[in-house]
Amino acid sequence: MKTTILIGGKAGQGPNLLANLLSDTLIEDGYYVFNTRDYESVIRGGHNFNLVTFSDEPIFSNESKIDVLVCLDDNTEKLHSKDLKKNGIILKGSSENMFYAGRLFKLFCLPFQTLDNQLKKLGKKYDENIANAKKGYEDEKKSFCKLEKRKIKEIKLIGGSKGIADGAIESGIKFYYAYPMTPATPILFELAPRQLDVKDFHTIELESEIAVVMAGLGSASVGAKTMVGTSGGGFDLMTEGLSMACQAEIPLILYNASRPGPSTGVATYTGQGDLNMVLYSGHGESFRLVLVPGDPIECQEITNQAFYFSEKYKLPSIILSDKHLSESLYSMEGKPKLVKSENPTELIRYNSYEHNSTGEATENAEIIKQGFEKRIKKEKEIEKEANKFEMFKIYGKKDSKNLLVSYGSTKGAILDAIHNLDIKFIQILYLSPFPQEIEKEIKQAKKVLVVENNATSPFSDLIKQKICFSIEQKNKILKYDGRPFFSDELKQEIERRLG
Fold it and tell me: What domains sit in the chain, N to C, each tagged with a CATH number?
């Protein structure tokens, strides 16, 4: 059983609130939910919508076809009715989102008392909301009752941004600096309230991304575990600070939630176009850790590992995410595997110039040579130790001769797409250092596909660089319209490429 609901309307009408309320209820009833949000860069007006897919089996993405279309305005029906399934249902006739909450609860045979409890927890405008919800519940005459009472499981609804925030708190973060930039801004909202509960932790918004990275370098250099966050355009401005962290050996965490570019690009949509930037930005020869999670549990684990390596080896670590992962809500089971990171920072002079062991600038040829060799040695040590962690994961049919490789937020749609297909899926979590162990898997495969949310497939280039394997253009499944993959469309594309 799998059902997809699209809830659409203007910014300010509350489609996101309605989607979250329904998602919370379904999770409480033991269902798996995936809730993603599509919105324009406006405060009021325009067109926003949420896609909520729920199932009695694990689900990590949405499908392109809709079972129920909820129209908070007329434009929603015009734009999305073409995607409604043959026996799909359209709910329309009011602009009040809680009126539709009542209709949806009645449609799916969910108890009205549960909705009442949800609105009481919401708090705001309870009397108005419950009146609208009751009217919708009474007005709805259709029945779409696929739901059965289920044994409640340990399922939690969590987004990628919360996963990053939780991982940072668990790792002992003391400072988070940021200048608001979609889609990295939700980290500010996640971390700011933690200042009330976590001792000596501070979230600080500054006037620019340059100020952010320089403040981060200052805090990290005196022993405070520090993370800074931005999207691609802000990361551009941080690259001089990134180079300094490499040279001065400052353990700074940089979080990049990417969106389509170049320049301002498409501010509120998703894309994986920043891979080369996080791998190679900055001048000179410098190594950095680049880690890329694919779901909220991995967001916690990867953030924790970024702190571990950064603190131990005194270098910058970069966490690469995107809008789809950072703002979607996943139903997750299990707990993250976390490690303890030490903080052996010494109070010495931190210098952006090549320097000696006490941090004093130097132009001595032998010391310059030693500085480069020290950084290279550090890279080799990290490559060796990284093998203690899951640098990649394998899913699907393990003995298949067909192989799909990808990274990041594409994981969810791929997992949902490869059910019953003769294919193995390798998800990469470490981009730098790169897991050399996958060379055997790739080179013994009969056919290798790559899936990326971009137009030029830089991940294919990375594979070619690291293990000397070239993926044919016809085997690259790319999407670059600012939207994530739908699992049903991706499945059809995989089947077509496999022939």
Answer: 2-153 (3.40.920.10), 158-386 (3.40.50.970), 392-498 (3.40.50.920)
